[in-house]
User: What shape does this take?
Amino acid sequence: MGERTSLWAVLVLPALLVGVALVTAGFDAVLAAGARRGRPGSLRETVARAVEPGRQVLRHLVQQPRRTRASDLPLARIGAGLLPVAAVLAAVVLPLGFRSVSDLPEGIVWFNAMEALAWAAVWLAGWGPNSTLSLIGGYRFLAQGLAYELPHMLAITTAALGAESLRVGEVVGAQAGLWFAVWMPVAFGIYLLSAMAMAFWGPFDQPAGRDVAGGAGAELSGADRVLFLGGRWLLLVVAAAFSVPLFLGGGHGPLLPGWAWTVLKTAAVLAFLVGVRRAIPTVRMERYLELAWVVLTPLAIVQALVVAVVVLNR
Amino acid sequence: MDVAVFWVLAVLAVVGGVMVFRFDSMARATFSLLGSLLCVGGLVVLLGLDYLGIVIVLMMTIEMAIMAVFMVMYMMNPAGLMPMTMIHNKKGAAVVCGLVFALLAAGILLAPWPARRGKAPADPTMELGMSLMGPQMLTMMTLGMALFATIVATVVLATRRGRYDRFGDDLRARHADDPVRGGVGR
Assistant: This one.
């Protein structure tokens, strides 16, 4: 399991991720337009909505950038730029079918380490512009990080435990018979929650909330804004895609080739996450914090214990 | 290739470390320290200890992000926004640093380094886990419990409100009286 690909995959990976992120953003824009009007639009309107994120990107790129007073420009730039970089680096261990760009022996730890870079990135982007609202957004993201990270780590550790390996390829291989989502449902659920929190998405979009004018990215403009908001979409795509090798059997499935199953499952998870944002209102962080410590962390530990006992008795 | 990567990472780590004391902004100092530590993580990966290196990157990133918040929060000047310096007691610090550097350098040059015995293990992560969790399991458990007890004790000592504030003098209140309402039905 987990063969290495040739060098060109290094170049294809970011392009592929950006493509998937644009499609997802288009899908979200169509849903948003439909929700605003209460009815689905005509085909032409739908297509216009779907290409809207792409047009937004171009518009930001040609726009005159704004500067805030006494901003720490290097830090804001590093923050905005680091977000997509972290997402792409995390995706290095993502297998498409059974091949990833690099199937590191510690792939799961690598993924976790790279998503941790997003912590630094969002805080820097919030701090840099010397603006209250963006700073509040940055702080909120750290509070959110504290709430989701521990159950998240336990959830992905549980998957590694089930496969007795930190190598993503072997985690996929261990699910040839039975998907981990079936016998580790708690870990899977917690992973999906934290996947949304990681990309400050859905009920966890407080760091970029409307009450603080867009929060962490409030003052970013031009290319910085494209990098930051695009990086957020990339994080969402990568976090959703990583649930496929961890819990949904990766490329395993009947009839179709491995890569097709990966794409299908990823699309299903992404569609679910995009739908959840429409269905559930934003959660306030101090409330989620208590939920994370009092309910989710013990649940995740019990789930890990169950998996450990099963693995030891195998 | 490895030599080139080593020197790039080593120089960046040292430059990052120096810049911690040159920057006059709390945020820049913190993240320059983070940059330095990430380079150290890279160096550990270069030594073949992938797991340890990646864990350094993971832990240090989260730690420095949280530390930035706490440092900004607890600075004497408003929210750490005024220009500041990480250097205090310059002369004393210089003497201490000089002595420690001399000691470490002398140690590197004078210690009789043993020649390598045996070969590197095929799976260093496994070996690390075995050496920590195999014969040292009791030590690890004791250490973990001690650390955990310290955390709980510190929180208990630091918090002003106790259970009598939350649940009333006879501890009979059905709902805790908390200033911040929580997320599990209160």
Remarks:
- The radius of gyration of chain B is 23 Å.
- Chain B has two domains: 1-87, 124-186.
- Chain B has a mean pLDDT of 84.
